[in-house]
Amino acid sequence: MARLELVAGDITREAVDAIVNAANESLLGGGGVDGAIHRAGGPEILAECRTLGGCATGDAKATTAGRLEARWVIHTVGPVWVGGGAGEDDLLASCHRRSIEVAAEVGARSIAFPAISTGVYGFPKERAAPIALGSAREAAADHPTVDLVRFVLFSDTDLRLWRGALERSDPP
Ligand code: APR
To answer: Which of 17, 34, 59, 158 is catalytic?
Structure first.
């Protein structure tokens, strides 16, 4: 069973095999995590992204991690929050499932997720946390070669929120 870790920090500094990027469907970069990963990883990442023909919301595609410590960046496209009635929950779960499937396909044993869709895309964090945790845990159970799943939150507030969601999902 994969270890599940929650930390606060900058995901571009994570020493894991694969870092998940909160991308958009063009895969041609952006702000937030996307901007940070491309800035820190360098132009090789974008060069490979250009060959992929974009990525559908809920799907995930791997590229080199360029200058990052990680070996791969797994670009996933989270749903834009439009009120909760357009399948956003299922699409967010799909991002985590597909990212872990792709990690297993490329041979990544450890993977770090940001809080997908909770920034520019406006997905409420308190709703996203249990979906992210639950879908990542289920997918990791189906892919035993992935033995570490780490969520890297960008603030202590977000870390506390994710910790609360984990405790509620896993009462002592
Ligand atoms: N490390 C970890 N987490 C980060 C970092 C970082 N360096 N930078 C931002 N975050 C956090 C944000 O605080 C937020 O909680 O990542 C979460 C996701 O925020 P966004 O990066 O805005 O991603 P998202 O909401 O999925 O929106 C994706 O934004 O940057 C564009 O190209 C991207 O169009 C796409 C959209």
So the answer is: 34
Indicate the top mutation candidate among 7, 12, 13, 33 to test ligand 1's pocket, ranked by most ligand atoms within 8 A of CB: 33
Q: What are the structural domains of the chain?
A: 3-169 (3.40.220.10)
Distance CA 61, CA 49 (A): 9
Give the pLDDT confidence of 121-153 residue by residue, as tens digits.
Answer: 999 999 999 999 999 999 999 999 999 999 999
Single-letter residue type at 72: W
> Is residue 34 flagged as an active site residue?
yes
Instruction: Give this prediction's pTM.
Output: 0.98
- Between CA 30 and CA 35 the distance in angstroms is 5
